[in-house]
Amino acid sequence: MTEGSSAIKPGVTGDIVTLKDHRSGKSFDFPVVDGSVGPSVVDVRKFYGDTGYFTYDPGYTSTGSCESKITYIDGDEGVLLYRGYPIEELAENSSFLEVCQLLLEGELPSAERKVAFETHITYHTMLHEQLQYFYRGFRRDAHPMAVMVGVAGALSAFYHDSTDIYDEKQRIIASHRLIAKMPTIAAWAYKYSTGQPFIYPRNDLSYAANFLHMTFATPCEEYDIHRSVARAMDRIFILHADHEQNASTSTVRLAGSSGANPFACIAAGIASLWGPAHGGANEAVLTMLGEIGTKDRVPEFVKRAKDKDDSFRLMGFGHRVYKNYDPRAAVLRQSCHEVLEELGVQHEPLLDLAMELERIALEDDYFVKRKLFPNVDFYSGIILRAMGFPTSMFTVLFAVARTVGWIAQWKEMIEDPQQKIGRPRQLYTGHVKRPYVPVEKRG
Ligand code: SDX
User: Which of 2, 21, 35, 330 is the most exposed place for a label (fewest CB within 10 A)?
Assistant: First the structure.
């Protein structure tokens, strides 16, 4: 797809799709609505009222849940656009905070607005001092994602002046607070697990550098931040910032559709992201590579991944939307080499193993036929491990980055005049009505 080549005027086209019901002999027309690019939709909002049928789409493989202007994915072409800008160009030329402003506001900021936004975020990175006591309720070996869910949800008990979702100013304040505070919450979750003291945010550091400093510095000595590591961290945040209506974003939208406050909705998104089929895959990839161990065992695990009787899947492979190489994985694959070289890591066996696994899988008919390619999670863990993060922190970093995507999508939903509370129906296959049986008469 090139600029504007397939952009069309979005909206109701006047075209229709007709459903012929052979049971009743009736036909029903449903309007076709075009987007600016990508598949058009059939508007089925009146489907049940007109036909008496529900549509049925477990996993929403063919269902559009909303209208959005934020992120576009072309899974066949491996294209990812944030507000129309290709992810590769943003990863190369932009910064995470500039991408945050783009996702939230819809346009790349002027120099003046960029400085104002960055300053605003910087001055919201501290947590209310009472929040640190929430950490003390957890065991030191609690998974940091459990801590993230708990502490992020607790924010709604502290920032009452930004929980009125119908007040635009409060929506913006809540959005900025969440973007600003998630790195602090994440870094403190790591510190708590190590028994080291919390490190407070510093206003003289960039967003990524500040996060690295809060994570790895100690009060005992100056912590020098590798410029290249901070740049790599910032780029990883950009790549994970948003991704259309994925499971965790859909969770945030559904929670928000009931009017729940933004902090509680983000906690719900963190919970959904944790799953190994979603954001938890980056941690699962490292576990998988550790289990494979050596290149000569790769064929054995590829065989297991293809075996329907074996629950093992190649973590970091496959995607609901991408049926081509995930463009984020391509950038991360390249970054792997750059970061390892800059860190002076001469030889990273895990990277060699991952590349061998990718080579063998992409030559195997099972993966080729199903269009299973490496996704964003396949290479990210290797970089994060080289940067010093334990695998238990990988999904936490994903959550820090995705917070801006979640909150931008949440804000878009709240401001969408068409939005209603999300309330799917079902295909019921349980018992029909039957009388109560007293216990003495049961079998
Ligand atoms: C993320 O949605 C998003 O945008 C998510 C994300 C984001 O930025 O928010 O991109 C982040 O979650 C990336 C995905 C990370 N998850 C993993 O890497 C886990 C491993 N991948 C799979 O679990 C799977 O590919 C999913 C969950 C990602 C997608 O699953 P789908 O779309 O439901 O596909 P499916 O399970 O129906 O699979 C289709 C076929 C099946 O075989 P058949 O029944 O056709 O014979 O492909 C097979 C599957 O068994 N298959 C795999 C496989 N992934 C799919 N077989 C082996 N290994 C795999 N990884």
Answer: 2
Contact 376, 332 (CB under 8 A): yes
For the question of whether the overall pTM of this predicted structure is more than 0.85, the answer is: yes
- State the alpha helices, DSSP H only, in 123-159: 132-135, 144-154
**Residue of the nearest CA to atom 35 in ligand 1?**
320
> Which amino acid belongs to residue 429?
T
Ligand 1, atom 14: nearest CA belongs to which residue? Answer: 278
List, for residues 1-18, the tens digit of each pLDDT value: 344 444 456 787 889 999
Q: Report angle CA 319, 321, 322 to the nearest 5 degrees.
A: 65
pLDDT for res 6: 47
**Residue list, ligand 1 pocket, CB within 6 Å:** 243, 246, 277-279, 281, 305, 313-321, 370, 372, 375-377
Q: Which two tokens stand for residue 72?
A: 């576009």
Identify whether the C-beta of residue 151 lies closer than 8 Å to the C-beta of residue 400: no
Give me ligand 1 centre to Cα 275, in Å: 12
State which ligand 1 atom lies nearest to the alpha carbon of 279: 12
Active-site residue flag, 319: yes
Q: Which CA distances in Å does 376 have to 213, 240, 312?
A: 25, 8, 19
pLDDT digits (tens, 9 = 90+) for 236-263: 999 999 999 999 999 999 999 999 999 9
Q: What is the DSSP string of 258-295?
A: TT--HHHHHHHHHHHHTSTTTTTHHHHHHHHHHHH-SG
417 alpha carbon – ligand 1 mean position (Å)? 33
